[in-house]
Design brief:
Layout: E1 2-7, E2 14-19, E3 25-26, E4 32-33, E5 39-41, E6 48-52, H1 56-61, E7 71-75, E8 80-81, E9 85-89, E10 96-97, E11 100-106, E12 122-129, E13 132-133, H2 145-148, E14 154-162, E15 173-178, E16 181-187, H3 195-203, E17 213-215, E18 230-235, E19 239-247, H4 248-258
Organism: Aquitalea magnusonii
Protein name: 5-carboxymethyl-2-oxo-hex-3- ene-1,7-dioate decarboxylase
EC number: 4.1.1.68, 5.3.3.-
């Protein structure tokens, strides 16, 4: 089963919906609305944890060694957006790239959870594109908010899929297309720290809550993106997330039209 959060045109209310096989959504009052007729929001509302360098091949392409302990950072609300939304490439930068990632949705409160019990705390899975502005990356020990926490640069969705509907999250293909061309491909089997390890690690020093999301890192295969580009990131058996890159001026124009 697929679960999503959406808004209907001209309405302020947010609806928690189920998603049908044709990607239309089913509202609680029985209405069925086409995929293109809704505003897709991030599918959960908890804290977003994100992993840096959690694929050894990605660390190598950035000339880093794979970390020996999970490198985790947080995402603030303004950086999150949904399916079919836009992401802003900042002016006067040199290199901004996509990152296709599997997202784990936490289903119940987790504190001091063992690796063996960790998967019992997973509600399901989603997809994100964790864009990075590489101009400001110095080394992975330093806080990298300017790299990873820009407004609109973390689309998540379109939905999350129940845990039991994904047979083996440790072997899922990840793919990214830029303007229809396949540019990135990897597999979750190549994570440095797998999902049970990450849940056990985080819950050993803090409480994870229902709705929290863990973006689990990206494989190698990165390239610069520019205003006008269409990005599609896909995780096998979970979903396909579409968004477009705009300039700061284009984004300002879009915002002015919605006032």
């Amino acid at each position: 089963m697929k679960h999503a959060r959406i808004r209907l045109p001209g309405e302020a209310d947010i609806h928690a919906v189920l998603v049908n096989d044709d990607h239309s959504v089913q509202l609680a009052d029985g209405r069925r609305v086409a995929e293109e007729a809704v505003e897709w929001l991030p599918p959960a509302e908890g804290t977003v944890f994100a992993l840096g360098l959690n694929y050894a091949d990605h660390a190598a392409e950035l000339a880093f060694k794979a970390p020996t302990e999970p490198l985790v950072f947080l995402k603030s609300p303004a950086t999150l957006t949904g399916h079919r939304q836009v992401s802003v490439r900042p002016d006067n930068i040199i290199y901004m790239h996509y990152e296709c990632e599997l997202v784990v949705i936490i289903g119940k409160t987790a504190k001091n959870v063992s690796r063996e019990q960790a998967m019992d705390y997973v509600a399901g899975y989603s997809v994100c594109n964790d864009y990075a502005v590489r101009d400001y990356l110095e080394n992975y020990y330093r806080p990298n908010l300017r790299v990873k926490n820009r407004d609109t640069l973390t689309p998540i969705g379109p939905w999350w899929v129940d845990r039991d509907d994904v047979a083996n999250p440790a072997s899922l293909t990840l793919r990214t297309w830029v303007n229809g061309e396949l540019r990135q491909q990897g597999n979750t089997r190549d994570m440095v720290f797998d999902i049970p390890y990450l849940i056990a690690y985080l819950s050993s020093f803090m409480t994870l809550s229902p709705g929290d999301m863990i973006a689990t890192g990206t494989p190698e295969g990165l390239a610069d993106v520019l205003p006008g580009d269409e990005l599609i990131v896909e995780v096998e058996g979970v979903g396909r997330l579409v968004n477009h890159i705009v300039s700061e001026a284009q984004y300002a124009d879009r915002q002015a039209q919605t006032v």
